[in-house]
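Lab notebook page, bench 4
Experiment: in silico fold of construct C2
Operator: M.H.
Input chain length: 247 residues
Purpose: comparison with the prior construct
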Amino acid sequence: MEAAVVVSTNLSYVLFALLPPILWLMFYLREDGHPEPKKLLILVFVGGMASAILALVGECAWVALATGSCRGGLDANLSPLVLFGVIALIEEYVKYLPVKFLVLKKKDFDEPIDGMIYMMTAAMGFAALENILFLFPIFRSNALLGMEIATNRFLGANLLHALSSGLVGFFLARAFFHPRRHHFVALGIIIASILHTIFNYLILIRGIIPQGTFYLILLLSTMAVMVLIDFERLKKTREVVGPVDPV
């Protein structure tokens, strides 16, 4: 009986960690007038979860290179912007990989808006596993604190992942009509990484600078408006596209 209670409790923690990114995903999927196959969306979501593991490996290697230890933090010889910038670049690129390898050559990837839909799906898979790894130990020691942090991540880190990947998805969509596709997608990843870096840096210093939380809200709000505008622009693009070359 005790084992069943432990399993049930741990499962509930995992489900609660999964809920925030799934809610954001459901919200943004409503923007697609021609819904994608559920099996393909699930595949990309799981691929996004796998990409989070790849990001952890890459980030560990980068932090070890920069600080001498995988668990090393900020030190006086390394700028936080440099540290966060590389981490953001790693995360934004690996979130793109499930889309690159799993859907770009599929016949269902046939209209520009699909770029944003699949990128945000991969991002929410990434955020889901990130939530589980980050929140599970907290839930086990303090369930109320875990719920509070999960709520904060829903409005912060999870939303950031959705928005930054949404921007990459827009550049991927525009690459359909651009002669230098590789350069165009790379530009999207770089822009998303810069915004991601700013977010991480604001998290670090928000307790130091006046109105730090306001700047975080302003950044996310600006990104949200950009993504919604991008969705509307792509909805007006009626051209149907064929398979694209992976970047």
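Observations: The chain has one domain: 2-235. Residues 57 and 70 are 9 Å apart (CA to CA).
Next step: discuss at group meeting.
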